[in-house]
């Protein structure tokens, strides 16, 4: 199985400088290929301590210059915050610098603080995401950007350098709403699962996506990429403590950054799902929801962690797994121990587990046929 390393660059420790965060995270990233990871990823975030990751392709270019094998992924590039032409240029250039190792992850964003600072109305994000995605995917294949939409208009322009290779099979989207999932099926884009919902709901949505994908494209969909935050320790009590401290703190930072408790989402086009989530939080309490988010992740002894991760991969019929090992206010020493133990005692078991191919592997024809019924 393809196993990638995700870097979050969170700064949740009082008194810690951003320079210290980068020094610690870059040390983990710099060892990724040597210790056996198959890819390196980071999300895009701006302006807060939540994640210090404003330029994904710049970071991935740094990784590309220090490696020869690992794939380089964005989880995700938030399209409404960018000029689509620049996104296409950036990933084309990254592909040339890495000789075809770039993986494009895309999404439409949720953080209001980021939308506000970029002066981009959240209510336009769904429509911008649709138009930008169509334009970018065409540009990456043809080397030409040209689009005449309601919000995005791009005169015919050539991307230089031209495409290194096709991005088909290596483009994935973080899709939460049913609308976004349906759109990805229509565009032939794979799914990236970032745990925010009950697993049964996620599985049902993937089944629906596979049905739609097969109906539109006539071929099975790519298996999804699964992203998990992981805490591992030889001592079960310490592993549980890591859940209580670090996974819970990560969950709390997520709730705060995205304002999951804001019922005002109901007034923003395209964010109705999150209004329902906010009402649920209002009913059951914020701490309970923090615990729910933490419990969607994985912690335990090495054997327990490997077993749980494989269970989730099987449940969703995933084709690749991304793990976050430094987060939630971990000190550099705690993060390094978590990383090292995962690498020595969990990673080999995951890499031996066969899911049918590398990242982008398609669901089996039998799975597609079952989904289409």
What report would you give on this structure?
This protein is α/β, with parallel strands linked by helices and 373 residues long. The protein has one domain: TIM Barrel. It has helices spanning 18-35, 56-64, 84-98, 112-117, 125-142, 178-187, 199-217, 236-258, 272-284, 286-295, 302-316, 332-345, 347-352, 365-372; strands spanning 2-6, 39-42, 71-74, 77-78, 102-107, 144-148, 153-158, 171-174, 190-194, 225-232, 298-300, 320-324. The strands form two sheets. An eight-stranded parallel beta barrel has the order 1-2-3-5-8-9-10-12, surrounded by seven helices. Strand 6 and strand 7 form a beta hairpin. The longest helix has 23 residues, at 236-258. The radius of gyration is 20 Å and the shape is globular.
**Can you identify the CATH class?**
Alpha Beta
Strand order of the largest sheet: 1-2-3-5-8-9-10-12
DSSP summary, beta strand count: 12
The N- and C-terminal alpha carbons lie at a distance of 28 Å
Number of helices: 14
Q: How many whole angstroms does the radius of gyration measure?
A: 20 Å
Number of domains: 1
Structural class: alpha/beta
- Named CATH topology: TIM Barrel
Helix proportion of residues, in percent?
40-55%
Name the CATH superfamily classification.
Luciferase-like domain
Shape from CA axes?
A: globular
The CATH architecture can be named as Alpha-Beta Barrel
Largest β sheet strand count, sense and barrel closure: 8 strands, parallel, barrel
Strand fraction band?
A: 15-25%
Order of helices and strands: EHEHEEHEHHEEEHEHEHHHEHEHHH
The overall pLDDT average reads 94
